[in-house]
Amino acid sequence: MPVVVTTAAQTTDLVDLETVKTYLQIAGNDQDAVLASLISQASSSCVGYLQRPLALQEYRERISIRGRRQSAINLSVGPIAAIRSIAVDGRAVTFLDEMFVSRDKARLDDPYHAPVTGDWACKARQVEITYLAGFLLQGMDQPEKKDTDLLPLEVTVLPNDIVGGVLGTIQMLRYGQGRDPLLKSESVQGVGSTTWQSMDASVGAISPDAIAALDRLVIAADWMA
Question: Which of 58, 85, 63, 45 minimizes the C-alpha distance to 224?
Answer without folding.
Answer: 63
